[in-house]
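User: My advisor, Dr. K., asked me to get a structural model of this assembly before our group meeting. I'm new to this, so sorry if the format is off. These are the inputs:
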Amino acid sequence: MAKNVTDEETRAERREELIRGRPYEILRALRSALREIVSDRVGLFGVGVVGALVILAIFAPLIAPKDPAAQDLTDALKPPFWYADGDFANALGTDSLGRDILSRMIYGTRITILVGVSVVAVSGAFGTVMGLIAGYKGGRTDSIIMRVVDTQVAFPGLLLALVILAVIQPSATTVIVVLALNGWMVYARMTRGVVLSVRETPYVDAAEIVGCKPKRIIFRHILPNLTSPLLTLAVLEFARIILAESALSFLGLGIQPPQVSWGLMIAQGKDYLFSAWWLVTFPGVAISLTVLGVNLLASWLRVVADPQEREKRFAQSSTHQTGAGTGT
Amino acid sequence: MGRFAIRRIAQGLIVILGVTVVVFVVTRLVGDPVDVLLPLEATEEQRAEFERLLGFDRPIPVQFADYLGDVARGDFGESIWQQRPAMEIVFEHLPRTFQLVFPAMALMVVLAVPLGVLAALRPGRLSDRVTVVLSIAGLSIPQFWLGLLLIIVFAVELQWLPPLGFGSFRNLILPMVTLALPAVGRLAMIVRSSMIDELNQQYVKMATAKGLPYSRVVAVHALRNAGIPALTLTGWETIRALAGYSVIVETVFQWPGLGFLAIQSIERQDLILLQAIVFVVAVMVVLINVLVDILYKAIDPRIQLA
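Assistant: The format is fine. Below is the predicted structure of the whole assembly, which you can bring to the meeting.
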């Protein structure tokens, strides 16, 4: 009895200490995370771009100077502000209907994120499940699934996507569906590879011998190995999807007006190449910078999220610092 | 080697069949082809009549069997838009796409291989930086935007080249460069990394120790081994160009090839023509894949492909 009371007291004391000490620990963890991000300038650019994208998308109504759909035909085709007849109200100029380019670009981030996240979620979920089944079950199921994957990979998707979009009315939803159908295979292949390699490890072997059900093995042992490569792959796919959506919207088979997409803006500006170059240029810069940033984020994540890669980088940096070794 | 070739061709036929099935399913089941083909004011009787005429009221498997039979005979029906046999139209446009894609791929190889080799030989110097920057740019810049930018710079501002159209060599330059440039970045990176791998191998050190001039070692021995991944990527890029990017580039420059035809037939809802185009593209893709694989095996007999 006396022992239990003392235990409780100690536990209460320790809990209090933990709570008192927490803020400091949290701050320290944050600071070191921040230092890590900032020290890798390439990664910083990637994080910055994606962060800006998210902020712009969420706070678009507050940040954008004008309503992206507001037409003002008297102000049509105004050049950017550094021209004589441009002004700061429409900093990047206006399009043929007098809509502000900058505001439309800011609102375009919403579609970019919506389509990107949706496609990654759907194709990632489906592909990962397929890969898990193929890798874990093996045998006939495995070869059937992989046969389907290989067949679909062999044929570049744009043409099939075009056919599908030709028959269905294009919209944001159909774009998401078509791009997801096009993109699940890479998740399946990767997941299957990881599952196959993890299954050979002693700890999974032991778990199977002890009698763990497959569900437990998958969730407790296999899945944690998947998080890091899956995350990196998802981010890379996000970049590819931004490009794909903008290409589809440019062809008129993607996002439809009155919604705003950067690819659509370029298509709308295409007819004014000779008179109003800014209609085409700025949305394209937005696409390029975003895709570049996301790609850099992916390569930063690849190192940061994978403990083995972190060790490699740590080893490299320490040899640089001490100036040791045979040099690179 | 023969068995291998036969197996690859069989796999290729499966891909073609798969594509045909998908296109058929999409055009029949997903959308309603009759809605697509008839004007909006058509009455119920007219719709029923039209369905019977085109055979759309028969059960789907019967339609599919019929379709396969037609395809086997090479009959792809008449284009709704131009009232001519669809294949005829496709074969008119196909050579023009070849005239764009093949020079572009040649340009890609001519630019990328020396760049990649130089980058591997001089790490950290100019060619290396250029390769990396070009490859990253190729990853991030949308191809249609690159084409439009080139038009703005070269056709609008400088007025050196015509912005679009088809006919002379001057019309070819901008679309060709637009197709080639992103691929140059990717191919140069592959050449660079495989050259770096090869140059670190034992046999290179052995050859230089033996007394061979370094240029010969690089050009004859290392390059040959590094060529295999490069060949694979070239084949892959050609396929992507033919089956995907040509659609975009041809639309931007109004180049009257197969990709442009595809977009036009989509705009006019001409599903019959679209089916023919997709089939031809599928056959091309499979042919190139099989060709690359056979070349692969011919170059390096050690390779065991699944």
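One thing worth pointing out at the meeting: The two ends of chain A are 66 Å apart (CA to CA).

User: Perfect, thanks a lot.
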